[in-house]
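Risk mitigation, structural track. In case the binding assays with zinc ion fail to produce interpretable data, a predicted complex structure has been prepared as a fallback.
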Amino acid sequence: MKKKSFFTGKEVEIGEGADNIIMAIESSCDETACAIVKNGREVLANVVASQIKTHAKYGGVIPEIAAREHLDTINPVIQEAFESSGLKPEQIDAFAGTVGPGLVGCLLVGLNAAKTLALIYDKPFIGINHLNGHVSANYLNTDLKPPFVALLVSGGHTQVLNVKSNSDITIMGETIDDAVGEAYDKVARLMGLPYPGGATLDKLAKEGNPHAFKLPEAKVDGYNFSFSGLKTAVLRLVKSFEGKELPINNICASFQECVSSTLVKKVKKALEETGYKQAVIAGGVAANSEIRKKMFELENLGIKVHAPEMKYCTDNAAMVASSAYFFTHTYDDPDTEVFSRVKNL
Ligand code: KG4
Ligand code: ZN
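Fallback model:
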């Protein structure tokens, strides 16, 4: 696909079949990231500066603080990406940046950095949907091609996607309340675990009995999900142990069992409906050991399952660069504005 540079309108062939080096910037939440990826799959640089320590003391991300920290970190992160790859800006074919969904003040920092680089070096700018980026993490260092069903599970989103082709993605279902990562973080918090609690909860769950407590699985139509009732059930369970020792490992394991079986059941149903023989997981919660395990069990049914390497599950810019190469995007205009909530993928 031909893309035009901002200033002179110089055309560059970008995307499948072309030989491209793309630099991408990601700053939608609390990670400032810059990566350089060749032909959508080969990672030449991947720099991620996490703000987790800053926000942990507040128990969640404070948007204004996050935006200011992105401002301090963005230039060193870009610099490091160039230095670690040994590449010069002139060697980059296009600059990509996350447009949304995310925290508006945070997105503005990365998006404007990517646009500025595109302007200075007279290259195309490609605006990326963060969720599409997460799915694209599965293209890094693999030979994956659509069609496939994608389970997207992050701190802000939970979706089952039908990826028919790189230009045709539909949302089959999504959460009607909390996202999976949000549910993990809230449940972790009510048990006194530090923010973000997802990974810690996962670790404790491995030491517990997944059948110790029967937690309610929300019955939601089609491919939609609901996790707020489950969160309340865990809250009640935790309260019932007041004054006694909390069986934290068993609660974590039972919660994890309920969440992972709900998610994978819907993926299985989506595979049956579409007839696809491939499934992928994406998003920060794709790092979860039990969700990965249950997804890979689908291979017993003849399904090929893909999961990104751990470092490409949580927010990073390599996935954004891959998305810029493979997928069709509608945010390439120089006047592209950031957005906080889901638009088309
Ligand atoms: O995709 P991501 O980095 O940010 C968003 O776009 O939201 O996802 C972050 C989320 C957090 O809620 C974090 O607790 C969760 O991913 N997470 C996990 C695990 N590792 C990260 N949740 C469950 N198990 C894990 N191992
Ligand atoms: Zn994310």
